[in-house]
Amino acid sequence: MLPCLESLLPGGLALLEEWVGRNSFTAHAAGVNALGAATAEAFAPLGFSCEFVPSENPQYGSHLYLRRGARGRPPVVLVTHLDTVFPPEEEKANDFRWRPEPAEGRIYGPGTVDNKGGTLVLWLVLRALAELAPEVLEAHDWLIAANASEEALSADFARRTAERCEPAAGGVPRASAVLVFEGGVLSGREFTVVTGRKGTADDRVLAAGRAAHAGSRHADGRNAIVALSEAVLRLARLTDEAREVTVNVGAIRGGTVVNRVPHEAWCDLEMRAFDDRVFEETRAAIRSLAGPSAAVPGAELVVVPTGLTPAWSGDGGTARLLDLFRDVAADQCASVVSERRGGLSDANYLAHLGPTLDGLGPSGGQAHCSERSADGSKIQEYVEVASFVPKAALVLEMLRRWETTPASDPGEPSVSR
């Protein structure tokens, strides 16, 4: 297996260089679409047909779906994304481009680890399966789902992906497995995979007061900034590290000029939690702020929900899928550590389809960073070249052990050991 993957790696790195050379900032739709076309071309020799699905937001590019295999069964869904967070102007200003550093074992560049490098691990796995175990490639229905706007957390990708999964009993879309190729840490022979992610609730809190002249009629005013400030302190106290819940007020605005009592102010916040009960309790506490201000009589607070991302608990089939991954690693004299992350990925939206593992992409660092300084205090996003083959080897062997017919229980993956 390893010699096969190692022989494929130089060609894979040539693909990665091409992909990294294409700016695919989320709002650069033409660049995202060009990368999607190049990605589809790379998988075409493996028999994958391609489908481009426009994003609901016309500012974004098209989602890419690649499909092969027998229909009529829940597919193995392999998830990556096309977009990055770097506008073309930022890449140019910071000279942020494909830059191999062989002495460091790294390649720097936009998307090298997030998430064009993840797409390369996926490509290596399927290319090696075609050579080493073509019967496995033929046995499954494969669905590669490449999000055009993952960095913007657009929810339409999840709906489009679910529409392409075969319905199980009751008409509910199902996947045999959902494997997400976001970056994951490799330290020596210890692999880290992601088995849960926090959900988020976004809200705007608005304070409505009463304007007045700050000098001659100050007492007539109802200061919206003061009302909002008291609410912000109450929001901050909802953070509880012991319960793994955080509330972050990330933006605040209010008032106009200093000789006027401000009549309005607002803040934007996000709450994150793993546990569904904690999540809902904290949402209720945020909503309870609505009504008369406790700090400024006569001022009112309004809470407006602005976004919601489900938590991925990692229960059920994910735990058993992790057991299989650990068995594979042990056979290769390696170990697997699972972690739950506070950050979001497509797994938050897709884990309901079937057993899910995340963090199957390469190891690297500084994702979302384009700056570079001579003293080394700032370094750009990079991928560790030596992580590609070991990561691909584990995923490949896990898929070789996957039974061709999933278990009837949606929470129970079917595997052969």
Structure in words:
The chain is α+β, with helices and mostly antiparallel strands and 417 residues long. It has 11 helices and 20 strands. The protein is elongated and about 85 Å long. The chain has 2 domains: 2-198 and 311-400, Zn peptidases (Aminopeptidase); 199-309, Alpha-Beta Plaits. A 6-stranded mixed beta sheet has the order 1-2-6-3-7-18, sandwiched between helices. Strands 12-14-10-16-15 form a 5-stranded antiparallel beta sheet. A 4-stranded antiparallel beta sheet has the order 4-5-20-19, with no helix packed on it.
What's a concise summary of this model?
The chain is 31% helix and 25% strand. With 417 residues, it is an alpha+beta fold.
What's the rounded overall pLDDT mean? 93
Helix/strand-derived category reads alpha+beta
Biggest sheet statistics: 6 strands, mixed
User: Any idea what the radius of gyration is?
Assistant: 24 Å
Question: What tags apply to this protein structure?
Answer:
Aminopeptidase, six-stranded mixed β-sheet, disordered C terminus, Alpha-Beta Plaits, 2 domains, 31% helix, single chain, five-stranded antiparallel β-sheet, 417 residues, alpha+beta
Topology at a glance:
Layout: H1 2-20, H2 29-43, E1 49-54, E2 62-68, E3 76-81, H3 88-93, E4 99-101, E5 106-108, H4 116-132, H5 134-139, E6 142-147, H6 156-163, E7 177-180, E8 186-187, E9 190-197, E10 199-208, E11 212-213, H7 224-236, E12 245-254, E13 260-261, E14 264-273, H8 276-287, E15 291-292, E16 300-309, H9 317-331, E17 335-341, H10 347-350, E18 356-357, E19 364-365, E20 382-384, H11 388-400
Parallel strand pairs: 3-6, 3-7, 7-18, 9-17
Antiparallel strand pairs: 1-2, 2-6, 4-5, 5-20, 8-9, 10-14, 10-16, 11-13, 12-14, 15-16, 19-20
